[in-house]
Each structure stands twice: as structure tokens, then as C-alpha cells.
């Protein structure tokens, strides 16, 4: 896996992935930025959420669960002093569908956290306290015309 980061002036950087996708990163005005892009630590948090969400959905699809929507909400705390690393992150999954089995959703979240999510495992081994929770939202059965 490769990436390239190019400085674009002030605190603005363009990150390009090995797969050819680009993202703008910038700092806040107090750090010389113009607030034109996402912060690098926000990208780390989004990467963690994306990695874990990918795993959860993959596991649920293999289990043939009728998922119609899956969202991950992440909240992170950072150290007060430099380096301002993440100290705690909580991932809360909201999975929506009709007839989802709680045991399958629980298993998917646990497997992601403990076995498959590289980002979660890497950060956890680095001392970040990472926790997970989930909520299942049962969608109403579709209405059929009489």
C-alpha cells in the first residue's frame, strides 16, 4: 500500500492513495490553515470507522442478514498535551433491517473489533481504549396494497 502527500501551501495538503483517490487536508485558522479540508486526525478516525464498518457489513452479508442500513458513529478523546494522540474511541453501530438476528450483529461487531479490523487492532495495541456498541433498528414490514 502506498500514498503520496503533497504540500499545497500554508497548512493545506493533498493526499493521494495508491489506488488513485485524493483528499484535501487542512488545518484550522489558528494553525495557519484555511479550513478547506479534513484534519489528518479526523481522517484516522474516519479510517477506523470505515475499516470496522467494512468488516461488519461483510460479516453480516455472509450471514445472509437482511441489512438495509448500517451507520457507525465514532467519538474520540485526545490527550491534552503533545502528542495529542487518541486516548479513547467509541464506535456505535446502528444497523437497520427487517428480521435481523441480534446474535449475528453482536458477532459481526465483536469479530471486527477482535480479529479483522486492522485499524482498530493497531490503535488498540498502541494504547487507545477502543470500545464498541450496537443498536438494531427493526424496520416495519412493507405495506402491501389491499
TrEMBL record:
InterPro entries documented for this protein? KH_dom-like_a/b, OsmC/Ohr_fam, OsmC/Ohrsf
Q: A Pfam family for this UniProt protein?
A: OsmC
Q: Which SUPFAM superfamilies match?
A: OsmC-like
Q: Which domain of life is it from?
A: Bacteria
Name of the protein described by the UniProt record = OsmC family protein
Amino acid at each position: 500500500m502506498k500514498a503520496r502527500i503533497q504540500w499545497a501551501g500554508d497548512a493545506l495538503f493533498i493526499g493521494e492513495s495508491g489506488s488513485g483517490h485524493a483528499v484535501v487536508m487542512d488545518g484550522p485558522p489558528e494553525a495557519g490553515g484555511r479550513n478547506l479540508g479534513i484534519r489528518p486526525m479526523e481522517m484516522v478516525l474516519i479510517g477506523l470507522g470505515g475499516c470496522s464498518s467494512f468488516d461488519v457489513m461483510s460479516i453480516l452479508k455472509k450471514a445472509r442478514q437482511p441489512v438495509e442500513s448500517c451507520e457507525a458513529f465514532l467519538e474520540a478523546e485526545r490527550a491534552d498535551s503533545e502528542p495529542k494522540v487518541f486516548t479513547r474511541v467509541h464506535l456505535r453501530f446502528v444497523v437497520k433491517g427487517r428480521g435481523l438476528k441480534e446474535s449475528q450483529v453482536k458477532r459481526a461487531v465483536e469479530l471486527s473489533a477482535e480479529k479483522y479490523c486492522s485499524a482498530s487492532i493497531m490503535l488498540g495495541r498502541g494504547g487507545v481504549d477502543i470500545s464498541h456498541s450496537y443498536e438494531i433498528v427493526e424496520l416495519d414490514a412493507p405495506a402491501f396494497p389491499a
